[in-house]
């Protein structure tokens, strides 16, 4: 073997080693890219499932309806009470439905520690409102926790919650 052949073989080995390392780096980068994309997709899928559960909760639905309407007739499960009219606003509707208005919500969301004689005194309608808003606010707090721990970002929440946050921020 001549010196030229030995040099060529050595050069070929070096090129093959560099090519192998470069190929491994490309493979690793591609695998890493696929992993990152998959993780993003899993986060989006996770959030979509959480939102489906959140908006599927009858209590949350009721709170959102109460926010969206100044006056509304609802069954106590949060569904609309169509075609049922009470004689007065305080009379219960047939089937346990009630007429709710903004005043009911304001009264329901009072601080429970600030009643005369220190005793809570919520009406049944106000208690139903409180339960609904407890579910809504607890759900929003969960999403905030997801964002604070970087599981999701606040921008991912925007399409789902922007309207409702604006409704609550500008009564």
Describe the structure.
With 171 residues, this protein is mainly α. It has 5 helices and 2 strands; from the N terminus they run ααββααα. It has helices at residues 3-56, 58-68, 102-108, 124-148, 154-169; strands at 71-74, 98-101. The chain has a two-stranded antiparallel sheet with strand order 1-2. Helix 2 (58-68) packs across helix 4 (124-148) and helix 3 crosses helix 4. The chain is rod-shaped. The chain starts with a helix and ends with a helix. The model has no long low-confidence stretch (mean pLDDT 83).
Largest sheet: 2 strands, antiparallel
Topology as H/E string?
HHEEHHH
Could you give the order of strands across the largest sheet? Answer: 1-2
The SS-based structural class is mainly alpha
Give Rg in angstroms.
30 Å
Strand fraction: under 5%
Mean pLDDT: 83
Helix tally? 5
pLDDT < 50 runs, ≥5 residues: none
The termini sit apart by 90 Å
Number of strands: 2
How helical, in percent, are the residues? 55-70%
Cα shape = rod-shaped
Secondary structure blueprint with pairings:
Elements lengths: L2 H54 L1 H11 L2 E4 L23 E4 H7 L15 H25 L5 H16 L2
Antiparallel strand pairs: 1-2
């Amino acid at each position: 073997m001549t010196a030229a052949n030995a040099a060529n073989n050595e050069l070929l080995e070096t090129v093959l080693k560099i090519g192998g390392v470069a190929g491994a780096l490309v493979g690793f980068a591609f695998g890493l890219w696929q992993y990152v994309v998959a993780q993003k997709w899993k986060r989006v899928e996770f959030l979509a499932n959480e939102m489906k559960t959140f908006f599927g909760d009858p209590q949350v639905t009721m709170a959102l309806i109460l926010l969206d309407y100044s006056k509304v007739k609802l069954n106590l499960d949060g569904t609309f009470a169509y075609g049922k009219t009470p004689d007065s606003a305080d009379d219960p509707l047939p089937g346990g439905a009630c007429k709710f208005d903004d005043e009911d919500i304001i009264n329901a969301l009072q601080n429970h520690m600030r009643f005369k004689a220190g005793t809570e005194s919520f009406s049944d309608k106000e208690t139903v409102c409180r339960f609904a808003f407890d579910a809504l606010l607890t759900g929003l707090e969960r999403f905030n926790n997801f964002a604070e721990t970087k599981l999701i970002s606040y921008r991912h929440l925007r399409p789902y919650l922007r309207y409702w946050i604006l409704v609550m921020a500008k009564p």
